[in-house]
């Protein structure tokens, strides 16, 4: 049996190559799922590729995937958590920031993580206790630098819908939860926040941030890890905040406040009328 990290890297590269075959700069057709997120033919094809290879090579392991498997019956065995296409909206619109995320969970924590963004040629890898890497070069978070005034905060579009945010950094919304946290791990962003992230958005990048020396945990509610059994992971959000340092994390925690339900309803109504 292959080393799990070697296996996951090759699987991510193969999945990325398959995604390239479906990608079109002019965009592709999408369907809407019951939760109002979108899915493409590429999501399903890559999901089939990855789950098949895992079942063949690691038949006793469990699988959680955004597109096909949301339940686990036995959390005593290792669990693979995959997002076949993170950044589906970007992909469907012909943008370049999208990729595949693969993690293996052992003893309820990520043991390996691989995230691959084919069009921008960025392969992120991590193994617990061994550090984080971008294209085989070690990466670390970067503490605030008083000589560098252009620090930034990466988040999802839902962040400003559900929270009042007063982070004193430039904001970038790049359309991929995994990429937001990868930017923290590599030292490009000081903070990353995902307001409605699912377990497959977080599994690989959780380890990447930790192994790069950063802080990542639940913003509110229970953290994604250690993983616990849920009825359906597709119905469980894990709002999560990643930061370069504990001090930056504390600042971010204080500068992000949940809006009242009334404010959210009003904003959603205004957005729908724009």
Task: Describe what is shown at a glance.
With 274 residues, this protein is an alpha+beta fold.
Please describe the structure with a list of short key phrases separated by commas or semicolons.
274 residues, alpha+beta, Fructose-1,6-Bisphosphatase, Chain A, domain 1, D-Maltodextrin-Binding Protein, domain 2, seven-stranded mixed sheet, five-stranded mixed sheet, 8 helices, 16 strands, 33% helix, disordered C terminus
Radius of gyration: 18 Å
- Percentage of residues in DSSP E strands: 25-35%
Head-to-tail CA distance between termini: 55 Å
CATH architecture of the largest domain: 2-Layer Sandwich
Structural class: alpha+beta
Helix percentage range: 25-40%
Largest sheet descriptor? 7 strands, mixed
Number of helices: 8
**What is the count of β-strands?**
16
Mean pLDDT: 88
Total domains: 2
Contiguous uncertain segments of 5+ residues: 262-267, 269-274
Output the CATH topology of the largest domain. Fructose-1,6-Bisphosphatase, Chain A, domain 1
- What strand line-up does the widest sheet have? 3-4-5-6-7-8-9
Task: Provide the CATH superfamily of the largest domain.
Answer: Fructose-1,6-Bisphosphatase, subunit A, domain 1
Instruction: Quickly name the level 1 CATH class of the largest domain.
Output: Alpha Beta
Order of helices and strands: HEEHEEHEEEEEEHEEHEHEEHEH
Instruction: Identify the overall geometry.
Output: globular
């Amino acid at each position: 049996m292959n080393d799990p990290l070697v296996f996951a890297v090759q699987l991510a590269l193969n999945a990325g190559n398959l995604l390239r075959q479906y990608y079109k700069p002019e965009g592709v057709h999408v369907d809407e799922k019951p939760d109002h997120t979108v899915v493409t033919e590429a999501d399903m094809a890559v999901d089939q590729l990855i789950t098949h290879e895992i079942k063949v090579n690691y038949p006793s392991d469990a699988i959680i995937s955004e597109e096909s498997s949301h339940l686990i019956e036995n959390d005593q065995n290792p669990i693979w958590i995959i997002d076949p296409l993170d950044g589906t909206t970007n992909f469907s619109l012909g943008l370049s920031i999208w990729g595949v995320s693969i993690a293996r969970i052992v003893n309820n924590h990520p043991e390996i993580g691989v995230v691959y963004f084919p069009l921008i040629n960025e392969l992120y890898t991590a193994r617990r206790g061994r550090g984080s890497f971008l294209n085989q070069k070690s990466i670390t978070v970067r503490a605030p630098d008083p000589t560098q005034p252009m620090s930034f905060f990466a988040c999802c579009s839902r962040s400003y819908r559900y929270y009042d945010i007063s982070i004193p950094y430039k904001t970038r919304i790049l359309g991929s939860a995994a990429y937001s946290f990868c930017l923290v791990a590599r030292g490009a962003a000081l903070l990353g926040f995902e307001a409605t992230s699912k377990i497959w958005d977080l599994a690989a990048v959780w380890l990447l941030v930790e192994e790069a020396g950063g802080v990542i945990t639940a913003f509110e509610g229970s953290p994604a890890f250690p993983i616990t059994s849920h009825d359906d992971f597709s119905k469980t959000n894990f709002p999560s905040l990643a930061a370069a340092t504990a001090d930056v994390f504390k600042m971010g925690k204080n500068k992000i406040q949940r809006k009242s339900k009334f404010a959210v309803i009003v904003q959603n109504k205004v957005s729908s009328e724009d």
